[in-house]
Design goal:
three-stranded mixed sheet; 9 strands; 14% strand
Length: 271
Amino acid sequence: MTTTVPMLSVSDGVATIRLARPDAGNAVDLPTAIALRDAVGAVASASGPVHVVVLRADGRLFCAGGDVRAMAAAPERRAFVAELAGILHETLTALRALPVPVVAVVQGAAAGAGVGLVLASDVVLAADHATFVAAYPGVGLSPDCGVSALLPAAVGARRAALFLLTGTPIDAATALDWGLVTEVCPAPDLDARAGEVVAAIAALPREAVGEAARLLRLAGERPYAVQLADEAATIARLAGGAEAGALLESFAAPAHRPDRPRERPDPGDTP
């Protein structure tokens, strides 16, 4: 039976949020939006350490966007769409505030809000047959879910305008060329490749990669000097912590140093 909620599971430091409405193309209706918000909130308040979040989806499509049928059937469309967008925006804000990297695994088409989920992720792995489309112009709507905010930074202003104003789909190869996705691989290899990337992230010090993800997300939103100040404060704080302290001491231990200092070449030596 198809469920209308994202399924959250946590194992070995990996939190997987799975859109599980395949019969509706994983389109986001109000119950799904609420459940997605709750899943992100549960990750944020998890008692055990989460090293990485993975966004996945069941079925043929990654996410068909907002549920257009639900919008059309709503007695008060303006109120319905305002509530749906509000919950999704709250969710995406919380997702980008998580102190861990977010990896999206896109096994099929992403449209509208689905593109917003892709843009909110730090690493995006896509199957070679995946497609991406704004979808908004086709139903007379404007962008939401942070698409107008994050798309220009990811692909450039001109390409963002072409994508949003024409509603023309792009394939995975184009999405990779534009910078919308991180990597494209054959569909049969997608899960294995996602496992490799997630394992590589999860194996690294949690705070270090989490802070790197946070800094990257903020880089385009504030002045360079502010970013540098945050970098300096963050690296100093980590250096004073137990995790980095142990690694720094291990790296500086005698086993990591040469047996003797390297001799300086005589100035008169010929190269």
